[in-house]
Specification:
The chain is α+β, with helices and mostly antiparallel strands. It contains six helices and ten strands. The relative contact order is 0.14. The structure holds zinc ion.
Length: 267
């Protein structure tokens, strides 16, 4: 699943290439992904110019002046920038053709993504209204995390993966951040003290920023915006040795998501 860093790298790349350019033509080969693709998308977009591309959590928002093109990559989606109009492959569901023959192509085998259009304030859109603070922004810090975790019995890992609490911290980065912060993922969120919350907020930002930076420097074949190789310390390493202490890493399910941690290092 594309996580926040992949979406942010995608945003930065698209921003460089597409801001100031106008939609020429839109072709949708599906009418429904996770939500319906608007019937009139092909009529709305041509002629509109991309003013900015912003990210809210894992949602990409193309500011088109009179409204917003919203894209979410779902479980398996990615966006590819191409020159010209090569024939679409399987699962290439939408094409956005821009000035200078630049083509933005949406590919999504499982069709769990979203491509839609809306007007008005993004903060009031039903998909966006409840998204919590952006983890890379100043609004997300230890004091905030401390405040929202008081009297909460939910596991801290599930708390930080709740997009209403903080936007876009997915499973991989939740595992990694808790390992770095030396906090057990299954601890009740309400038991964290302010110092632990500050540490956790800091490392969440660090693991996300590291991945954004690695993704930005990663050479991507064929203009494909995809996933980035990264060396994870715990994610995917259940049963292997902890890189800090050498003990075997435990793997459990929390909220039905794979959770790996070191019972010696994390408390
Ligand atoms: Zn350890």
């Amino acid at each position: 699943m594309p996580e926040l860093p992949e979406v942010e790298v995608t945003r930065r790349r698209l921003e460089r290439e597409l801001v100031g350019k106008s939609f020429r033509q839109v072709v949708s080969r599906v009418r429904k992904l996770r939500l319906p693709v608007p019937e009139n998308l092909e009529e709305i977009l041509p002629g509109l110019t991309v003013r900015a591309i912003v990210r809210l959590g894992k949602y990409l928002l193309f500011d088109c002046g009179s409204g917003w093109l919203l894209v979410h990559l779902g479980m398996t989606g990615f966006l590819r920038l191409l020159n010209g109009s090569p024939p679409p492959g399987k699962h290439d569901h939408l094409d956005f053709l821009f000035d200078e023959n630049l083509l933005l192509r949406y590919h999504d085998p499982r069709k769990f993504g979203i491509v839609t259009w809306f007007t008005g304030d993004p903060q009031h859109h039903p998909l966006l209204a409840e998204i919590g603070p952006e983890p890379l922004s100043d609004a997300f810090d230890g004091a905030y995390l401390f405040g929202v975790s008081r009297n909460r019995n939910v596991a801290v890992k599930q708390l930080i993966m709740n997009s209403k609490v903080v936007a876009g911290v997915g499973n991989i980065y939740a595992n990694e951040a808790l390992f770095r912060a030396l906090i057990r993922p299954d601890r009740a969120a309400g038991t964290l003290n302010l110092h632990e919350c500050s540490e956790l907020a800091t490392v969440i930002r660090e693991v996300l920023e590291t991945s954004v930076n690695e993704g930005s420097s990663f050479r991507v074949a064929e203009e494909t915006v995809a996933y980035y190789p990264q060396s994870f310390k715990v994610y995917g390493r259940g049963g292997k040795a902890c890189l800090t202490c050498g003990n075997v890493l435990d793997e459990i399910r929390l909220g039905n998501r794979s959770t790996v941690y070191c019972r010696t290092c994390q408390r």
